[in-house]
Amino acid sequence: MADKVRVAIVGLGFGAEFIPIYQRHPNAEMYAICRRDRTELDACGDRFGVGVRYTDYDELLADPDVDAIHINSPIADHAPQSIAALKAGKHVASTVPAATTIDECRQLVEEQRRSGKVYMMMETVVYSREYLFAKELYDHGELGRIQFLRGSHQQDMEGWPGYWEGFPPMHYATHCVSPCLAILGKHAEHVVCHGSGRIDESLIPKYGSPFAVETATFKLRDSDVCAEVTRSLFDTARQYRESFDVYGSKKSFEWQQVENDEPVIHTRSTRERPLSEAEIPSRVKVPDYAHLLPEEIRLFTQPAAIQDADHLSFLQGGGHGGSHPHLIHNFLMACTGRQAAMPDVETSVNWTMVGICAHQSALQGGEKIAIPQF
Length: 374
Fold this sequence. Notes:
Layout: E1 5-10, H1 19-24, E2 28-34, H2 38-48, E3 52-54, H3 57-61, E4 68-71, H4 75-87, E5 91-94, H5 102-115, E6 119-121, H6 129-139, E7 146-154, H7 174-182, E8 188-196, H8 204-207, E9 213-220, E10 226-232, E11 241-248, E12 251-254, E13 264-267, E14 281-283, H9 319-335, H10 345-363, E15 369-370
Parallel strand pairs: 1-2, 1-4, 2-3, 4-5, 5-6, 7-10
Antiparallel strand pairs: 7-11, 8-9, 8-15, 9-10, 11-12, 12-13, 13-14
Helix pairs in contact: 4-5, 5-10, 7-10
């Protein structure tokens, strides 16, 4: 395996946030960028000093100097572009979700196995500081036995690009599904989902999905634990929220109810250590976990946006709970053979299919749907 990975980024809206991280990572060469609009492509290339530029994705795939492709295009393009990149012999990182159909998920698994290249869905939540903190509590035995898991991702998508209009909530569910599965290292086995409420009539025809909110419960394979997740995209009043709760026999962790609130740990009152109701919950300060990263990219975990003469800038400051540098580091370590990708392709499609199958269940009035295994 090469020590440096030559990376091309496709999609330069959200995707541009990753450019300065790749540029500073000791195992990456930020080699090329790709966007359909030439003016926007050149503006991004000039801003970050990236010289190799493509408006045609097929031409990018044909470039023998590209080792890995990081895909940040619209959702419908994720699977087709990922499959094409694997067929071209490139490592693939794809923003979420991995796909929009079960068949696309199957093809991703088949092409990854055929090519032997890395495929990794770049799920931000399982590298957020809050999730890493909860996972550390569990790994150290502080939570005890996990009894139940809950995720919620609520967002108002009004005014976003047209392909979002009427999008089924559970088709974009990996932010709340993934932590529930990752913390125990399990895949989901089956799911039951109910739709609730109704979005504006003008939004329904595009995807045939009427639901304002979808709520699903799913069973973890080879486990006695189940999880519940809730998604909303339109016509539901709620501040943006990505949250994750894990309920244990000793302690429980609840991530976020209101933005910038510190998470809460609930400690169980026992005969040996009785606690009053007021003493059970306590706010906790979550560390940034920068120590897990190469020194060159640790600053990207910080919540404040940074700018300097080296184009060290990023729009969200710390990117989704400080996850962006962790995602890039894991992907590059997988590409260079130092560790397995997390999530790997089978895990990526399982997290994605929970949402796909959940929406099927909601359309069928809450029927239990088995999640395929490949």
